[in-house]
Amino acid sequence: MKTLVSAVILMCIACVAVAAQQPIDALKQMEQAYATKSIELQSCLFTDDYRFHSLVMKLSEYVDGSDREREIRVAKNLFAGRLFGKGEPRPDAMTLELVCGEVTEGPDPEHPDSTAQYRVLVSNKFSMRVIENGKERMSVPSSQHVFHVVRGDAAVLTQGQERVADHWYIRRWLENTSGVKTELAESKGDCGEGATAAANLTPGPGVLSVRALSNPACPALEVMCDVPGTEALHVDVFDVTGRLANQRDIAVKTAGSLKVEAGAGANLTPGVYWVRLRQAKLKPSTRMVVVAK
Predict the structure, then answer these.
(1) What is the pLDDT of residue 198?
(2) 40-89 tens-digit pLDDT
(3) Segments in the chain below pLDDT 70
(4) SS3 of 200, please?
(5) Are residues 143 and 206 in the same domain?
(6) Same domain, yes or no: 159 and 55
(7) Do 237 and 165 reside in the same domain of the chain?
(8) Per the domain annotation, does 127 fall within a domain?
(9) CB under 8 Å to 190, separation ≥6 — which residues?
(10) How far apart are CA 255 and CA 226, in angstroms?
């Protein structure tokens, strides 16, 4: 494990990658990394706090995702020609085709007030193929993938990455969000009784925080809010593309834990959402939540 980390650090130090000068350039750089099977280019692209959210995971684990180290390890195996991490390295026999098609750009729901430094890129026609000796070994059908990108001067970086404003990095990848939406549409979200265990969690003192009471949640999107003050609580709900899907102002009588239906008054369809809390001058708190029918 330490060997892999050390190797990645050396790769980043030695990396002379094409600068991702615009948000979209981060995806172009990833396409290039796959086409050239360059682990150096790939590893220099992800921030130190990078998370990957995959449909392969259970819905209850989807919101947590996996880290940068695992992403680089998977890419390293693939680029070496070891499909699914198995077999002998055969890089010359394998061709990788990754395409980020029909990309739209929007605000990052975790940082909607900092659009100059944080953006969401939605690839509505993302696809990938692995071809070995002229035969297709694996394919990812065209589907929606979502990427959260950050400008270098605001990013959480690892050794060797440049903290400059003309570089953009990927800090989150939500794989096949269209597939996630389909799976959630076939699941039933929990609300009310049976979803109150999370309310017993103890928040840090003076910290504004939010957590879902169930995972997946029902369309009412019940969350538990830890509210340090008595000022009004502002609740924003963003969909996976960064679009504002609901907004509520909640009166707070006493500081403490408060159950809120963040989705009340909106018609939330199954999918991935972000709930954001704001109160007075406290640092906002944001949490990803998956909503089922």
Answers:
(1) 42
(2) 999 999 999 999 999 888 887 899 999 999 999 999 999 999 887 788 88
(3) 1-19, 192-205
(4) helix
(5) no
(6) yes
(7) no
(8) yes
(9) 213, 214, 216, 217, 218
(10) 8
